[in-house]
Amino acid sequence: MSQGHSAHIDELVRAAAQGSSQRDSVIHESWMRCVVDHKLDPCVQREAHIVSQSRLREHRDAVDEFLHTVRFGVETLYRQVSGLGYVLLLTDANGVTVDYIGDPTFDNNCRRAGLFLGADWNETHAGTCAVGTCLMTGEALTVHQTDHFDATHISLTCTAAPIYDPYGNIAAVLDISALRSPEPKESQYLANLLVTSFANKIETATLLNRFRNEWILRLSCSPEFADVDPEIVIAVDGSGRIVGVNNRARKLLQRELSTKFDGKSGATPNIADVFECSVDEFPNYIHSRPHEQRGLRLHMSGRSLFGQAVPPPPKKKSASDGSRERVLPSQLASIAGEDETMRNVLSRAAKLVNTQMGLLIHGETGTGKEHLTKALHSVSPRASKPFIPVNCAALPEGLIESELFGHEAGAFTGAKSKGKRGLVLEANGGTLFLDEIGDMPLTSQTRLLRVLSERELTPVGATRSIPVDVRVIAATHRDLVGLIKEGKFREDLYFRLNGAVLTLPPLRERLDFDWLVEKILSERSRKRDKCLSLSSAAFAKMRQYDWPGNFRELINTLDYACAMAEGNVIQLEDLPEQLLNGKGRAQKISDVADDLLADLRRHRWNVSLVARLRGVDRTTIHRQIRRYGLTARKTPS
Known about the structure:
alpha/beta, about 40% helix
């Protein structure tokens, strides 16, 4: 044990014995909690606790929508502090790190220090620390070096701020930490301001996303800043009821009403209870009026804030059939017929079109992963820029880095004399589709992670980085979590890529099979200038087939049948041999149903557990239960 560790432990022991210390009050109170409430021994140094992969997935799944909303703000903050040696952590309300951004070259040191994905920083076992103590106090703070309770962490400086949900509860904690820093705690003053500012921006973004169909009241103490950087944001429904707030608005309501705001309860205040203004007067505070004429007076304190009222979007007229489903762009709608699973996938995909988050597409070979990616690119703001597909499994391992990231002239034996731009730069401004990402070598994964984190790349043999703006969409048919456990895929890259995950069902499970066949035949008919159709016997045989090659095999089958058909009708004998002799789909579905029923019975119909074990969403299991008509009647008690 070093002299510094011993001195720190001595200070903790004295503080615990005397009940006082020279530390800030928030740090001293935390030390006392650690000893009295958490029963932590100041003499014991504890290694960072990293939760298991399955537990981490549970924590991330619970805040999935929140992670999608905050990703841009998190990455923007990291770009501002990365050059100063900080890493960024985003934890959930339990103190478990659900998002992490840091320099990959620091990964080993950061992981040992607990500055890594899956680290649990709850004060009850980690002691005084920025995340855990922030969760206890509900306020932003810096825990600097020897402020930490556990002597293991006294080399760290950590600054954290709470992120509140629109209902006034802590949803997450935003933290920036460094392994080394100047000794004075005052050196972290600007870090505290920066993290607090971004936490407020993330709260506002979450609020606006959640209540996009309500009135939004944006308020500031200064009339000049009410429109550009409001401190206080409140969501108000049509009746004037306050339904959501950011943290600064929550504190304002608490001061004015002397009660805690709880947006989920039925006793939420009306905007007229707080301001000398009703929701009917909100049109007087829209952007077109001069800001100095948009003052709102508070009932209790009498002071005025300057505001901007943003009206809800006009309600769209419902379709004639009364359906409220989101209208899909035609490029996406053309991918599926009336298959609930595919329509849900496409509906989720449509919501991701304008985002920058990573997207990971799962599915068996031939299910149309590249087809979906092209459709997403075509309806995105990047549609006029390049779409570059890369099959990671097809690139030679020795050349994959130069192919992806380019190289300087003469960088290695066999390099092009004029150098090469690389596929990532070719996709600059557009979309890079990395198919079979699970087959990418580990060294290339590290370079790709840096590109995604830093938004810049360094060609092989180059000394200067090149800025790059590219959206990466990855796809795989492999179990990436299994590859992570085997040490064949980087965990941090996995979580960088899977900002959103879409899973394409295999063709044998799609309920729009007939629609797909008719669509392909219609396209072939236009090309051949004749109307092609399937005989009932041929159609029946195709419905029974297992389709191991999925959509790709279906296209090849119909192209072959069209070539073999002598007239306009495709007969049974016109189908390929492997289809005529192949395993029937009915038997395959029976096998799948039996396997699922066995799993459900084994785990006493715990659908969530079965879904986790199978690596799918629980809605998929519910859908399969309905489809196969499974019941628990014969389940052993």
